[in-house]
């Protein structure tokens, strides 16, 4: 199972699954994960996940949180 985490304008998001089928979760400061209220389209290439999240949540950007950054990938650890 693949797991990738992103910091999306200050929100922590985990994507879990395989290329072509991802489940999205919000990561809480309490260590719990909750199902996110959005889907990742199955046609979206893996290398475009960060840009998709940026496009989806761009209204959440602030001067102190203005980027989407991949912070974890279990295939690279």
Description:
It is a single chain. This protein is mostly beta strands and 77 residues long. The chain has one domain (2-73). Helices cover 12% and strands 40% of the residues. It is built from one helix and five strands, in the order E-E-E-E-H-E. It has one helix spanning 49-57, and strands at residues 2-8, 11-18, 21-27, 33-35, 68-73. Strands 4-3-2-1-5 form a five-stranded antiparallel β-sheet. A hairpin with a 2-residue loop joins strand 2 and strand 3. The radius of gyration is 12 Å and the shape is globular. The model has no long low-confidence stretch (mean pLDDT 93).
Task: Furnish the topology, listing elements before pairings.
Layout: E1 2-8, E2 11-18, E3 21-27, E4 33-35, H1 49-57, E5 68-73
Antiparallel strand pairs: 1-2, 1-5, 2-3, 3-4
């Amino acid at each position: 199972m693949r797991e990738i985490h992103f910091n999306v304008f200050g929100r922590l998001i985990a994507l879990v699954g395989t290329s072509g089928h991802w489940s999205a979760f919000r990561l809480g400061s309490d260590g719990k994960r909750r199902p996110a209220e959005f889907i990742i389209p199955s046609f979206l290439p893996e290398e475009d996940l960060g840009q998709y999240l940026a496009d989806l949540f761009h209204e959440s950007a602030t001067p102190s949180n203005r980027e989407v950054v991949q912070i974890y990938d279990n295939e690279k650890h």
